[in-house]
Every structure is written in C-alpha cells, then in structure tokens.
Amino acid sequence: MHQVKLLQLIRIHKQGDTHYLHIMLHANEKTTYYWQVDRETAIRLQAITDFSKGYFYQLSWESTHRQSHITQTYRNESKNLGFICSKRYAEQLTQIQHAESTEQLEELAFLSRNLAFKQETSLSGSRKQRKQRKLPWPLTATFILLLAILSSFTCHAIFTNVNADSEKQEETTEQPIQEEPKPETMLPEDSMTSEEERAIPAVALDAEISSGLDEGMVALTFDDGPSDYSKQIVDILTEFGAGGTFFLIGSNMDEHPDSVEYIHDNNFSIGTHSVNHINFASSSLATQKGELQQSIEMIEAVTGEAVTLFRPPYGQMNEDTKQLSRELGQRIVLWNNDPKDWESRNASNILQQVKSQDVSGSIILLHETEATVDALPEIISYLQEQGLQLVSLQ
C-alpha cells in the first residue's frame, strides 16, 4: 500500500508560460516530481516563499474554499502561511493524495519526473533520424561529375543575365528620378504623438495617512477590484485623459489576472486593499501582517513594480496597522468624498452624491460596479468642468 505522508515544496520553476512546483513526496520512499500548476497559484506561492534562506516548506493537503496553506520551518520554529489557490490546484492535490501506488502517480498528466523529459525525448529522436548514410564510391563519383556539368551551364546563364541587367541599369540611371513633393503639413513619424502617449497626471503622497489633496486636484479611486469592470473603467479614464488609482483585493486576482496587467499597462496606479478584505482594526498583528504583506507581493509579482499605497478595508485600522504600514513602506490612503456607490447601485444617485459635496481637493471613494461604470463619464465631465485636475496617486 502506497501512502504519501508528506508533500515537500523544493522550488518553483517557470519555463516559458508554464509554471512547475518541484516537489518531493515522502512515502515508503522519497520521490521527486515536477508538478505543472496554474500561473496564479504559482505566483501566490512564489510571493510567500524564500528558498534562499534554508527554509523547509511543506504543502498542506487541505484546500477548502479556494484557500490552502504551506508550513515554513527553520530549525525548531514553524509557521503556517496561507495562500489563495485555484480549483484546478485543489483537484490535482486530491489526486496526488489519493494515489495508491507510484504507478498511479506516474499516470497523472500534470506530474513528471524530469522537467525537460519530453523535450529531451524529441531531441534524441530527431538525432537518430539525422544519422547519415554513406553512398558507395562509384555513385559518389557519378554524382560529382553531373554537378560539374550543371554548374558550367548555370554559371554561363548567370553571367549572361548579369551583363544584361547591367546594361538595363545603365540605361535607367541616365534618367533622373523625380521625387514627389511632400505636403508641408507632414511630420516625421517620430515626432507624432498619440492619445496613448499622453502622460497621466499624478501626485505623490508624502504623508503616512492621506484623506485629501491640495485645492484644484481630485483623485478618483476604485476599490474591490480587479473585476469584470476594471478594463471598462480604464478605458473611460483613458478616453477623458483622467488619472485613476485602483485598490485591489488579492483574492480577486485569481479570476481577473489580465485586468491587473491591463491597469498597469495603461499606466494607472495600483494599491493594495488586503487579500480577503478583513477588518484590520479587529485583527491581530500577525493576521494583519499576513494580509498586507501577501497582497503586496501578489500585485508586485504581476506588475514587477513596488506597491506603496494601502487602503484598509472599511477605512478601519489601529496602531498596529499604522506601524505595520511604515515597516512595509506603505502610505495609507483614505477618502473625504463618499458617493456611496456601494449602497445605491444607481448611476444618477452616484453622480448627484458627487455633485452635492465639495470636490476640490477630494479623494473620491468608488467601487468597481456596473453603476459606477455607467456614472463615470458624467462624473469626470462634471469634475473637468469645474477646472479640476484628475490625478493618479503615487
């Protein structure tokens, strides 16, 4: 009876667009495999592991509600690190756990003993096919003679064609080529600017906690993404030349990884809104640190840039939250204008809420909802009519 007792994570690899977990199964004997997993789960594990410091990592067999954990051990100290996993990862984990023999493990399509096994097999096969055969010497001599005869005729034909082409070229060069006049309005291609190349206005926050801006500015901020509406919001902001800042929830990134890249690629600011939208004010320091640190690393793994903006869910925080934000290099961003789009879910009501408050110098709290998308063009138009500069936060 084959029973896997422990699942050790040795390393995380990436080949092209494919991600692998290098694992060791501790059963009756120790065996190593490369486990092909989805990109999002690999990114989340990469964000909470560090293989350069001698840690021992043990993956948990438990995976409920798309969450799992990994135990990090160093000497006599251990701690559990939670991470969001995909449904596919959970299903594969179960298959590994229930395998009753090494043969059954070998039959799992997502497991391989060698990371480059298939590639090496195909290469060796092609080498065998390329093995050359030597021709008998009489055939070789005849073949060389034929080549010599063909070459003489070919060279003569090429020489004749070259002379003919030279004569034609001489006749052609006698007549000057007249260039068509260029319109005076035509500009060199490298001097042209497109709408996409326009810089998005931005303002850097210096205070540890900000809830407003200088007069003449306004910041549109969007919480609880990424979502089905992220790309629409980005497109509207781009169309109006307005800045925008997105505070993302880590647990939503699994379903909308392309939206995170889309926000970043269009040069809008991204901050963290935790992993699971918890209340930081009522959470322990350890829980707060896990939520904030993991969410930062998850976003950075996608964008490749440092995250420096943090909005606590519900705007709730305590002294531990402030100290932790300082340690992790985060600026806390609150708001002073709440149109309550999360409550009304009505585009007209959201617009009227914005208009009913002093908008100059405001940080406006919005959420990624259908009603917000519907109201956004009119909100931006109204703010721009007031002569305000719509900025991204940095």
UniProtKB/TrEMBL annotation:
Domain of life (superkingdom): Bacteria
Chain intervals for the UniProt region annotation (Disordered): 165-192
Alphabetic keyword roster: Hydrolase, Membrane, Metal-binding, Transmembrane, Transmembrane helix
Entry's Gene Ontology molecular function annotations: hydrolase activity, acting on carbon-nitrogen (but not peptide) bonds; metal ion binding
A GO CC annotation given for this chain: membrane
TM ranges: 137-159
InterPro entries: Glyco_hydro/deAcase_b/a-brl, NODB_dom, Polysacc_deacetylase_ArnD
Family matches, as Gene3D superfamilies: Glycoside hydrolase/deacetylase
GO biological process, one term: carbohydrate metabolic process
Keyword Transmembrane on entry: yes
Domain spans labelled NodB homology: 216-391
Keyword Repeat recorded: no
Coiled-coil ranges per UniProt: none
Family annotation (Pfam families): Polysacc_deac_1
Protein name: Polysaccharide deacetylase family protein
Native source organism of the sequence: Ornithinibacillus hominis
